[in-house]
Amino acid sequence: MSNRRRPLLGIALVVAACLPAGPATGAPSLHASGTSGASGTTVRVAVAADLRFAMDELVAAWATARPATTVTPVYGSSGTFFAQLSQDAPFDVFFSADADYPHELELAGLAEPGATRLYAIGQIVVWVRSTSTLDVAARGLAALADPSVETIAIANPEHAPYGRSAMAALDAAGILEAVEPKLVLGENVSQAAQFVESGGADAGIIALSLALAPTMREAGRHAVVPIDTYPRLEQGAVVLRAAADPAAAGAFLDFVLGAEGRAVLDRYGFLLPDA
Amino acid sequence: MIDWQAVWLTVRLAAATTIVLLAVGVPIAWWLARSRAPWRPLVEAVIALPLVLPPTVLGFYLLLAMGPEGPLGMLWAGATGGRLVFSFEGLLLASVIYSLPFAVQPFSLAFAAVDRSLLETSWTLGRSGPATFLRVVVPLSAGGILTGMVLSFAHTLGEFGVVLMVGGSIPGETRTVSIAIYDRVQALDFDGAAATALPLLVASFAVLAVTYGLRGLTIVPWLTRR
Question: What is the fold of A123-229?
């Protein structure tokens, strides 16, 4: 008779092990999505991948200056965020790598008309590892047509503005057709950077802001692509209409647009719009 | 450093998924094991779909269904006033659907293996349907039930594609371990990725080892003794 209970005991043990999760999932966390208890407000920011390292620094600077408001950045491609925001994703501010996506959000009624603010102008570079024999400094983009280059990482032009710039620059250099079969697409520009940094790709066309990050600087070298060979990467940010705390969200955007924010963006190679 | 927030979130998600699948999966599996309805194969096929569908396809449909304009999203908003997609609750629903075959199939196989004459004996001796289920079917199917629960738990731990589509990588709410690892790799933080990957590997191994241990020690000898 005692034996009969033992398999049940096994199940009971597993269930018991799961139990601590019961209350946690039962508790309604939905309405707390924008705030974090009594300690202050949380601002969730959807950030284009080119800003990954610059934004980490901006968020750290903000945390020192304004500890009451926690800023949580999530990085990805602008197009993916646009799709998610269109499906009601719970972000308060969106830093896009172009200005079109924020403008579309305005048109869709997800942000106030005219709320998009230009915060930076991005630049693209050709990037290779230090061990590469390609002379990108002298030859620029043209070096990518070299037969020794088998794969070139760029961001997916379908939904990443930096990918579209890379395609336009390759086209302007007259080598798009030659290199197209060599292209490997990252979901966003920081994945493209990771492809080439890790050695998976021989070269990459990535954001200058990523090339200037410490890890990338140590691992390789880059050449800036002339800015007049691709459509200007005017980057816009917008506070979403659904922001849980619009005042806090607006304050963080102001901070990035202000003197302190501009200094960081400048250090990461962004050109700055007139203040 | 290990992303403990993501680890804890993932464990909560996997545990909640397992509990929901136990509640939902047992009745479905019992019906599948006993039913002779002509459309039973269709139900079986629907439940098995997540085994063969690319997670992104499932995630895509779930994204549409759970969005503010989708049927599930509207139903949820009507009931709670909240948002389903990009929330923990939405992720839980997606995980339950995604792991459904991992629970239902072992449950159903175990139920089908229960000798029908034992059920009839129990009924003849005056036990009600539910009492027979609890005192005859469940003990006889314990191994299969345990296997289904462990598979559900482990499968949810490692879920990536569906979470990527409907989660939105929100720290503490939808950024599971597998998404956190992906994010660390993109940040070129390979040490962070490795540190967060390790607990996932250890936990998956431990869960499976404990399960096989339990089955070896108690359940299987008990079944053979019978």
Answer: D-Maltodextrin-Binding Protein; domain 2 (3.40.190)
Give the highest mean pLDDT range of A10-24, A30-44, B111-125. B111-125
Instruction: Please give the structure tokens belonging to residue B159.
Output: 């879920």
CB atoms within 10 A of CB A93: 24
Question: Residues of B with CB below 8 A from A15's CB?
Answer: 19, 22
Which of B18, B175, B186 comes nearest A191 by C-beta? B186
Sequence spans of domains, chain A: 39-121+232-267, 123-229
Of B67, B149, B186, the CB nearest to A194: B186
| Residue B146 to residue A14, Cβ atoms within 8 A | yes
Alpha carbon distance, N-terminus to C-terminus of chain A: 82
Asked if residue A148 has pLDDT above 60, the reply is: yes
Same fold, A39-121+232-267 and A123-229: yes
Task: Name every chain A residue with its beta carbon within 8 A of the beta carbon of B222.
Answer: 3-4, 6-7
Model ipTM value: 0.70
Size of interface A-B (CB pairs under 8 A): 120
Return the bridge partners of A75, or none: A47
Domain parsing of chain B, residue ranges = 4-225
Name every chain B residue with its beta carbon within 8 A of the beta carbon of A76.
Answer: 169
User: How far apart are the C-alpha atoms of A74 and A84, rounded to whole Å?
Assistant: 12
Q: Report residue A47 as tokens.
A: 């950030």
Give the other-Cβ count within 10 Å of B29's Cβ. Answer: 25
Kindly tell me if the per-residue pLDDT of B219 is higher than 80: no
**Residue in B12, B63, B169 nearest the CB of A24:** B12
CA distance A273 to A57: 20
Fold of A39-121+232-267: D-Maltodextrin-Binding Protein; domain 2 (3.40.190)
Residues of A in contact with B10 (CB under 8 A): none
Instruction: List CB contacts of A14: < 8 A, sequence separation 6 or more.
Output: B146, B149, B150
Average pLDDT for B12-26: 97
pLDDT digits (tens, 9 = 90+) for A172-228: 999 999 999 999 999 899 999 999 998 889 999 999 999 999 999 999 999 999 999
**Whole-Å CA distances, B95 to A42, B80, B90, B161:** 27, 20, 9, 11
How far is the alpha carbon of B138 from chain A, nearest alpha carbon, in Å? 8
Environment class of A121 (CB within 10 Å of its CB; exposed 0-12, middle 13-18, buried 19+): middle
Its CATH architecture, for the domain B4-225, is Orthogonal Bundle (1.10)
CB atoms within 10 A of CB B110: 22
pTM score of the predicted model: 0.78
